[in-house]
Design brief:
The complex is a heterodimer of chains A (364) and B (320). Chain A has 364 residues and is an alpha/beta fold. Helices cover 34% and strands 19% of the residues of chain A. In chain A, strands 6-7-8-3-9-10-12-11 form an 8-stranded mixed sheet, sandwiched between helices. In chain A, α4 runs parallel beside α6 and α10 runs antiparallel to α11. The relative contact order of chain A is 0.15. By secondary structure, chain B is α/β, with parallel strands linked by helices. Chain B has a domain of 218 residues: 3-Layer(aba) Sandwich (Rossmann fold), CATH 3.40.50. Chain B has 9 helices and 14 strands. In chain B, the strands form 3 sheets. Chain B has an 8-stranded mixed sheet with strand order 6-7-8-3-9-10-13-12, sandwiched between helices. In chain B, β12 and β13 form a beta hairpin. Chain B is globular and about 60 Å long. The relative contact order of chain B is 0.14. Classes of the chains: A alpha/beta (364), B alpha/beta (320). Chains A and B meet through α6, α7, α8, α9 and α10 of A and α5, α6, α7 and α9 of B. Chain B: One of its GO terms (molecular function) is ATP binding. Chain B: Its main location: membrane. Chain B: Keywords: ATP-binding, Cell membrane, Membrane, Nucleotide-binding, Transport.
Amino acid sequence: MSHSLMAPSAVSKTGTPALEIRGLGKTFPIGGLFSRDSVRALHGIDLTIGNGEIVALVGESGSGKSTLARCVARLEKPSSGRILIDGVDVLKRDRFQASRAFRSQLQMVFQDPFGSLNPAHRIEHFLRRSLAIHGKGGGSGEQTQRRLEELMTTVGLEADMLNSYPHELSGGQRQRVAIARALAVEPQVILADEPTSMLDVSVRIGVLNLMRKLRDEQGISMLYITHDLASARYLADRTAVMFAGELVEEGESLDLLANPAHPYTQLLVSAVPDPARAGSYDPVRRAELRQAVMASTHCVFDGDPNQACSAEEPVRHQVGDPANRHWVRCHLYRPWAAAGGHALASEPIQTGHPASNAQEEASA
Amino acid sequence: MTISQVSFGSHEPVLDVKDLTVKYIGDTRSTTAVDRVSFSIGTGEVFGLAGESGCGKSTIANSIMRLLKDPAKIAGGSISFGGKDVLAMSPEELRRFRWQDVAMVFQSAMNSLNPVLTIGEQIVDIFTTHAGYSRKESLRRAGELLELVRIDPARLKSYPHQLSGGMRQRAVIAMAVALKPSLLILDEPTTALDVVVQQEIMAQIKELQRELGFSVLFITHDMSLMVELSHRMAVMYGGRIVETAKAQDVYATPRHPYTQALMSAFPPLTGPRVPLTGLPDGVKFRNIPDLTEVVPGHFVAPFGSDASVIDSANLEGAAR
């Protein structure tokens, strides 16, 4: 019997979280050759993803979610902080570039399934290559073939599609191939950066359901990066909200979106179109929320003897039942002015490409 | 029974599209992108057209503006605007019809601004070309226009790259309503924008619509957004309309399985977390029949019969 897809092979028994991000920071230099200016894209990110847990990272473009993903994927070198996979600091273990061992622990699924598959190769090539590079194909050609078919079945595709070229597949099917390619490596963590935003709406749910199924059946942990609060709520166990390169609130998804404590989260939630509460738009209320994000004069936890307020990081107030692990950064804390300022100006800077968010911040 | 008879209110329809068929003619085979589509939009009415990429909704918008290029051909049907036959217009009539009667905001329109001209120059251009105002008068009106969409008139001197995406999009909308058109076509006006900005743009459009009283043809795949903004809406699939009714009715009781799939593609933000299915990869409807009136004002294409088979073994179509 070769590798069974049903066995949660990657789940460690020790109870260490699958992925831990500690104090991660990233600054980009800006200006000319001799300039010493820099822009702070990420600051002090602490995020833990337990085994078999799906954590969603939400925020607007320019908030730094994609920079965080690129740092965790080791496509970008973080300026400070640690990234632990299974308790091992991977930044220390392979200092200069990501090792093959790291790649076999963490895999990525990108936004654009039209750009992430080489059009000159058949589907089989992508999967076979993943298996070969990471030595997961089994000994014989027969085993490899069986494994290929297994992978296709897992992601809900017909095995005979292995002979197709990417252009013969629909967007949803291509994204499934991209997921199969990540799975071939048997990773512990999958990093999915807006995996559904380029897909047609009617097949998006299918891809989200597939991700949930992989978690349930194989215990793969996931970091799901999105700007769609509703899909975060649908898929993720926990949701973290990012604003101006920092996390401002995190908690159990349903609880967080039902009782958003931070004004920025409230602003995001209030902007989601929902026919069930049509006419909810109130410019005055929203102006207040904007104001509160940048310069709150009081905190909802003022006067709570158990949770003192402070404008200094890291003050994280616990919201509601401790079981929900829902915390919010103290309202008194002022986000780093420049980054927060334009992210929240009444005309937020819109960045064209998610990967270039941080650089765009610099040019503003 | 045609759908044009149930426009919102009792006004004369501004736009009346009847049995519109658009084909893309190829060397070896032709594709019917829009297939016998009929709808009408009343004065001051917001009409939504929902559907996924490739369903023909943008082709319809381009047909109305007469912007179709080869190999696309209008193969049948009629489009009349305020009683005039759009398909029979001469180039000179078309020039006046575009922008003065019907204006369009394209998908990612914020990238349609000319990067080497200031916002002011581009707006002035509209007034001098289409309305024949003097440069000074045009500049004054351009300032007013920006104020209308709450952009500081000092921004007239800015280049597009100096504005944020939301501001650029608002500038484009301001330019579209510059000549007070009676119909505004919005083709996915907010797809490239963040949710907070999207909300603000939509609120802005609603406000302008109330103020200026134009009709809107609103094209999007986001059903929640559409239901919030539109009075009436139609759902398109494979070049055909599968369902049309008042937006609230479609939201409350979607009747066609495709409409239901589109609705459930957006998980709710409240209530318990229930598993949704969406449309399975590869499911496809074929030979969609003409609409029938199921309840007054609610038209649905019959489904589930032999006429509209659901084919799950096919690669193309639904999943694209």
